[in-house]
Design brief:
By secondary structure, the protein is α/β, with parallel strands linked by helices. The chain has 13 helices and five strands. Helices cover 50% and strands 7% of the residues.
Length: 304
């Protein structure tokens, strides 16, 4: 019986999928949608100039956050501390790519795309490195020594995937990660874990991906993967496979979760809402989540 609330949520998500076109129309009419809003998925084309301009805005916002917060900008010399700090960063030594593996951000399709690209036998990127190329899939950055790590951080294309933290929580709950019978009790478990002991499934991105220490070249927002990643691949000197990019479904899911967020928020107490806003206050400040429900909630400011 304890899983009935989750089943009800799944049913609501199915209904929301059919209603998502209304949300899309509403977004078009009101101009909502954060720092980049597509006109219509089938006809929307993101030009390179627009993409680069949006990237400048996102990275400037991130730099401003890092400057205000005073978070460290250099890697620790200790192997143990560095391994902990970089525990969620993955590298493709064949593609010269580095990215932060964030749960519940639709990264499965991205990783499948990388695997397809790595399978191309004639794909070579002649970048001088002080060690032999290993061409290993799924390599963790923390497995390399300090010299290798610093070289990769300088020369590799670094990609950060971000998603509205409240949407991440809903996705995590829907996937059944944890034994909470209701969304409200799940949120209570999240808040009870604290930021220092948080699961990677809901840990704030600022802590998970260390964007003040790792200077990402591209900040890609959930809901625009198909359009933005084609430019990321081109700028990284990689072939753009249009058929593989069509597999990304994050845009349709984005509209659905906008509707679902309003329904799930009603399950939370005023105290839980306030605590959630405080829990993710760094992410809300560092990334373009201006349309997130959490930005509309009162929170108790904490010192940087």
């Amino acid at each position: 019986m304890r899983f009935l609330p989750r089943l009800a949520t799944l049913a609501a998500l199915a209904v929301a999928t059919f209603l998502s076109w209304r949300l899309l129309l509403w977004s078009l009419l009101t101009g909502q949608g954060g720092d980049l809003a597509p006109e219509e998925e089938e006809n929307f084309t993101l030009t390179l100039d627009t993409f680069l301009h949006v990237q400048q805005l996102r990275k400037k916002r991130l730099r401003d956050f890092c400057s205000r917060s005073g978070r460290g900008s250099t890697l620790p010399r200790s192997q143990a501390e560095r391994a902990h700090l970089l525990s969620h960063l993955r590298v493709s030594t064949k593609l010269d790519l580095l990215y932060c593996q964030v749960p519940s951000t639709g990264m499965e399709e991205w990783q499948q795309l990388l695997e397809k690209l790595e399978e191309k036998a004639n794909l070579t990127l002649p970048v001088p490195l002080p060690y032999p190329r290993q061409h290993a899939q799924g390599t963790q950055l923390r497995d390399f020594n300090l010299t290798e790590t610093e070289t990769m951080l300088r020369s590799y294309t670094k990609v950060l995937f971000v998603r509205d933290p409240f949407h991440r929580l809903i996705s995590t709950f829907m996937q059944g990660m944890g034994s909470s019978p209701s969304f409200s009790s799940f949120i209570q478990d999240v808040l009870g874990s604290g930021q220092h002991n948080a699961s990677a499934a809901w840990e704030p991105l600022v802590s998970l991906c260390q964007p003040c220490s790792v200077h990402y070249d591209f900040v890609v927002v959930f809901g625009f993967f198909r359009q933005e990643l084609s430019h990321v691949l081109q700028r990284a000197g990689l072939p753009v496979d249009s058929l593989l990019l069509l597999d990304f479904t994050d845009t349709q899911v984005r509209w659905t979760y906008s509707w679902l967020s309003e329904q799930m928020l009603k399950e939370l107490s005023p105290q839980q809402k306030q605590q959630l806003s405080r829990f993710y206050q760094w992410d809300l400040s560092a990334f373009p989540f201006s349309s997130s429900f959490l930005t509309r909630l009162p929170s108790t400011p904490q010192p940087w």
